[in-house]
Amino acid sequence: MAEGPVRLLLVEDDNHVAAALSAMLSRHGFEVTHARSGEEALQALLPDSGAPFGVVLLDLGLPDQDGFEVCGKIRKRTATPVIMVTARADVRSRIHGLNLGADDYVVKPYDTMELLARIHAVSRRTAAHDPGHGAEEGPDGPHPPLRLGPVTIELPTRQVSVNGTTVSLTRKEFDLLALLAQRPGVVFRREQIISEVWRTSWEGTGRTLEVHIASLRSKLRMPALIETVRGVGYRLVAPAR
Predict the structure, then answer these.
(1) In the chain, which residues fall in CATH 1.10.10.10?
(2) Class of the CATH domain delimited by 146-236
(3) What is the pTM of this model?
(4) Residues in domain OmpR/PhoB-type (predicted)?
């Protein structure tokens, strides 16, 4: 069934940058709405503002509000994927953004093809996890919870808890954890993880993988749960009950 263009909310206070980005994104089939401030962005995301957006491209350097604060407000208002655009290259800032609910980030200066790859990746993941696609089930019915020591992973509802306390994860964080948890002890190559979780073979996603691993370790408060296998990839080490 044919679908219309993906609506993209571009949050950028620099009109020259926004004009260039809007033109490029329009050429690649996106319907772009430009917001020049955090408040404009939040207003554009109100339920009565029109058809829903498929992606929010959020520059963190906004004139009226801190970009991280805007990201948190967006996530409370909608599940629309958010890609942060930032000049802050340190891992701590990226993890902070992911903890607030961002789905991905792009560090300035960036290549436009990199930006497009990330936008398409979050769009595909959102479509794949849309409730209309139905709950995930195995051949014998719904998947039972995955239990790894104090960690419980509910695949159909995409819920994760540690010692009974729910842990809020982004889409990619959940997908990454679920992938590793379904085969604990097995080493997953970086290329394999990127292919499964990001649905791409694009090499630039590798740094994103590292940041998401660090974010998972932080959120679960179990740094030893995911082990780095140097030069190969990662594996989940099932903790003792």
Answers:
(1) 146-236
(2) mainly alpha
(3) 0.60
(4) 143-238
**Secondary structure E strands in the chain:** 6-11, 30-35, 55-59, 82-86, 104-107, 137-138, 141-142, 146-148, 151-154, 159-162, 165-167, 188-189, 226-229, 233-236
pLDDT tens digits for range 76-106:
888 888 999 988 777 888 788 888 888 888 8
Contacts of 185 (CB under 8 A, 6+ apart): 235, 236, 237, 238
**Do 90 and 64 meet the contact criterion of CB atoms below 8 Å apart?**
no
Amino acid sitting at position 37:
S
- The distance of Cα 203 from the centroid of its chain, to the nearest Å, equals 17
Number of H helices, E strands in the chain: 8, 14
Torsion angle of the four alpha carbons 212, 120, 46, 48, in this order, in degrees rounded to the nearest 10: -150
Report the CATH fold assignment for 6-124. Rossmann fold (3.40.50)
CA distance 107 to 181: 30
Q: What burial letters (b/e) apply to 22-39, b meaning 16+ CB within 10 Å?
A: beebeeeebebbbbbbbe
